[in-house]
Structures are given as C-alpha cells and as structure tokens.
Amino acid sequence: MDFELNEEQRAFRETLRAFVDKEIVPVATEWEHSGRYPTEIVAKMKEMGLFGLTVPEEYGGLGADMVSFALVFEEIARGWMGVAGTIGSHSLSTWMIARHGTEEQKRRYLPDLATGARRTGLALTEPGAGTDLQGIQTRAVRDGDHYVVNGTKTWITNARHASPLPVLVKTSITEPAHKGMSVLLVEEGFTVGRDLPKLGYKGTESCEVVLDHVRVPVGNLLGGVEGRGMQQVLSGLEIGRINVAARAVGIAQAAYDAALGYARERTAFGQPIADFQAIQLKLADMATEIQAARLLTYWAASQADLSANKGKRVDMEAGMAKYFASEVALKASLEAMRIHGGYGYSQEFTVERLYRDAPLMAIGEGTNDVQRLVIARALVSGKGRVGW
Known about the structure:
The strands form three sheets. This protein has a four-stranded antiparallel sheet with strand order 1-2-6-5, covered by helices on one side. A two-stranded antiparallel ribbon has the order 3-4. The relative contact order is 0.11. The chain contains nine helices and eight strands. A hairpin with a 2-residue loop joins strand 1 and strand 2. It is of the alpha+beta class. 54% of the residues lie in helices and 13% in strands. It folds into three domains: 109 residues, Orthogonal Bundle (Butyryl-Coa Dehydrogenase, subunit A, domain 1); 95 residues, Butyryl-CoA Dehydrogenase, subunit A, domain 2 (Beta Barrel), CATH 2.40.110; 152 residues, Butyryl-CoA Dehydrogenase, subunit A, domain 3, CATH 1.20.140. The N and C termini lie close together (11 Å).
C-alpha cells in the first residue's frame, strides 16, 4: 500500500498551494463580504489550465487523474470555497461531454472549454425537484431538426457564463421517468434570472434559469441518443461528490489552521490557550478527523480512476467520502469558532466564513442522508463492501 502522492501530484499540489496563498487567501474575506466577483482569480485559473481539468489531453485539456482533481478543489476551497464553484460544475460538465458526447460534440466544445474561452455549468435542479431528479418538469419536444424546450432550473452555478449549458430534460413522458430523460447542450436562448441570496458559497453566482420555447438543434443532444440523460448525469455526480468531499477537506483544513494559529497566539491567565488541555483535545480531534477525511477522499478518487478503466461505478466510495468529509467540515468549522471565542463570530476572522460555507458541503451533490442510503444499498446488494 502507498498512501503518498506521487512526485507529479506533489508538484501539482505545491503549484496550487502557492497560487492559493498568493492570489486567493489575501482577498477572500474582503471580496466575499462585498459580493465581488473573483474576475482576476478566474483569469489566473484559465492561465493555469484548470478549466481543462477533466478535458482529455487530445482536446487540449489537462486530462488529470482523479486524485489530482481532488487536490485542486481541496486547495482552492482552503483559500475560498466559493471560488472552487467557478470550476466545479464546469469540470463536471466537461467530464460528461468527454465521457458521453459524440465525437463532433467533443471537437466542437472541449478545446474552448479547456482554455476557459467557453465556460459551462450543469442545469439539473428545479424549484420542485432536487434530490428526486426523476421529478423534473422541463420538457423538450422534437420539432423537425430542433427540440423546443420549456422549463425552469434553479441554483445554477455559472449560469451567466455558460455556453453550452447542459440541461436535463424530459424528451418522453410515455415511459418510466428514468428512461425518458436526456441532456441537451443549450448554447443560447435561455434567460438567466436573479442571483439567489445565500448564507455562504459566495464569489460565484447561483441563479434561476428560464427556458421559454428555446430551440435547440438535435445535434446538441448529448451522446446523440434520447433516454440516456439520467445515466449520464448520475455518472457525472460521482465525480461531483469527490469534488465536494475535497472542498470539505479544504474547508476543514482552513478551520484547523486558523484554530491552531489563534490558540498559539491568544493568551489567557498568563499562557497561550494552546497550553490548555480543553483546547488541545479539540485540536487533536480536528486533526485526526481531517486526515481521515482526506485519506477517504483520495481513496475514493483513486478508485474512480481504477473503475473508469473497467467501466464500473464508484457510488459507494464517492458517497462515503462526501458524507464523511462534509460532516468533518461542519464540525471543524464550529470547533474553530469555539476556539476563537467571541472573535470567531466576527466577520474580521476567517472562521466566520468557513462556518457559513461548510453546510453546503452536507447538502450539495445529494444530501448526506441520501449518501447514507446509497452506501447502505451498495452494501446490502453486495455491490460494495468494507475492507480491502
């Protein structure tokens, strides 16, 4: 067993870490509170090729392995989780196009998506359908060589920048829901509504998207065959959960770093509070749980690489990582706030932002209760197991 990153991954992590410490950490608190869009950070991520993270090298991308993929989101979220959102759904979408798109679709979209000349997101959730994707109401009706699409999507990241925007639709309502769903790559015609106000996860927009008789060429049907949308989306959500798990690790690490630094500097009763056993126990718990979450996330990522070569899914592994790491992030952000005392409640300190960002990790890409069900079903069915 080898629990170490390889040389290439370590070098990649160091590059990411230097970028985050120089370009993101110094401005994160100010820009997050002001609602400023991180234009300069996005430009730098384009230069680094991070928009091509899941784009194969033959189309101009990095073609990164899944552990390196996790490293990107861990390090960026350590600096500012909201910024990770600008490449999060983009990377999931490009992965779906690379995995399921026709050759013509790959050639048309992936090179520009890899450089960030084009950006994308993913339109799944609707006002009345989140976890239950089979309950979506957005319809796409064939009309000659186009589909006419009507519906509303919500909580869409990168909506104002996406072209194409993969949209989950119902192309048939006469068969079981999961067999009547498809993904259309919508380039134009949709309307982006208001930015939805959020507790945290700022820095990137989350919007409502309205599709009112939008005409989409038949050639923009992902994969070229109707009825495969649900399978395409679920396969993409696997790596989405690794993305969220890694972000959670980044939040937890930032919370621990802030708590440890503060505990060493803050004095009470004539000594640093880090000398008090109560604080030491909190720090020990945080460090242990964060390392466990990190290893579980890297394991799920490595299993995704192995399974991709065999055509298998990693729902259980990704679900375990996302579930555990997000719970660790929630706990670590709260414990960091407690260690800071009253200062932890102040917007002048980083832990206040981490405390607001952490809850989304337990909700996004499927709630943690759903992850527990996914894990349990894999175990009961025999498709998943505990141990090596």
